Amino acid sequence: MNRIFEELNEIYSEHNNNYIPEDEKSISKKCLENTKYFLKNIPENLAELTDPGIEPYDGCLTLEWYNYDNKNMISLSFDNKKRKMIYTYIIYDDKGSGILTFEKSVPNEIIKWIERVVYE
């Protein structure tokens, strides 16, 4: 999981230490903490398979999982304040999006969707 944390730290530093255009926002320390908290609370084998990134226009960090063989995916964006995530997934003909909070633990449905994307 160190690789993912290093990537997140690099994204955080590069984005916040470089010029940020008017229409983009910086990443808050709380957003970085929330993203790492999420990763620490899912199975490590799933955490290692994510592709971290940023939504520059709202300053949210993102984690994404893809399965290019069957075109399944799940994307999570993490809030700058609370332990809240915005999710979007496509798993075969099942599609969904919404907002979930994770104060103490990660919602089971998120873990199940990630597992389906990765392993099906």
Description:
With 120 residues, the chain is of the alpha+beta class. The chain has one domain. The protein contains 4 helices and 5 strands, in the order αααβββββα. The protein has helices at residues 2-17, 29-40, 44-47, 108-119, and strands at 51-55, 60-67, 72-78, 84-91, 94-101. The chain has a 5-stranded antiparallel beta sheet. A hairpin with a 5-residue loop joins strand 3 (72-78) and strand 4 (84-91). The mean pLDDT is 89.
Structural class: alpha+beta
- For the CA atoms, what is the radius of gyration? 14 Å
Strand content: 25-35%
Q: What is the arithmetic mean of pLDDT? A: 89
> Total strand count, please?
5
Order of helices and strands: HHHEEEEEH
Helical content stands at 25-40%
Number of domains: 1
Ranges with pLDDT <50 over ≥5 residues?
Answer: none
